């Protein structure tokens, strides 16, 4: 996907950014089905080799969805709910490595009782602390 001519989002109004409830919805869309399957296999099927296979499949899903697709701008949940993750400075997708680093930065969102995940409720750019650190924004895909 080419995003040539995409503007910088450093001074955009809040209406240009995806709201908190849609971001939560995207997270639930991509996380809940995987977690349900994961827990069914891990707790219901007590065969060691299947546990290992399920763990590896879960890790593969996280790598593919969060870092590869997320780095291209849309994880599965963001695609379903019509949002994109972009660099605030360039307006381009952030790439696989930066998507991985952004997930690591989410540790900061968690440190203070997960308050960092609530930042989009009052932040003008609707960013989490990890978004601020990585200089990323989540916008509606139709912009």
Walk me through what this model shows.
The structure is a single chain. The chain is mainly alpha-helical and 143 residues long. It has one domain. It contains five helices and two strands; from the N terminus they run H-H-H-E-H-H-E. The chain has a two-stranded antiparallel sheet with strand order 1-2. Helix 1 runs antiparallel to helix 2 and helix 2 packs across helix 4. It is elongated. The two termini are 14 Å apart.
Mind describing the biggest β-sheet? 2 strands, antiparallel
The termini sit apart by: 14 Å
SSE series? HHHEHHE
Please give the count of helices.
5
Oligomer: single chain
Strand order of the largest sheet: 1-2
* Beta strands, count: 2
What's the number of structural domains?
Answer: 1
Overall SS class: mainly alpha
SSE topology:
Layout: H1 20-44, H2 48-71, H3 76-80, E1 83-87, H4 95-111, H5 129-134, E2 136-140
Antiparallel strand pairs: 1-2
Helix pairs in contact: 1-2, 2-4
Salient structural properties:
143 residues; mainly alpha; two-stranded antiparallel ribbon; 2 strands; elongated
Brief write-up:
The chain is mainly alpha-helical and 143 residues long.
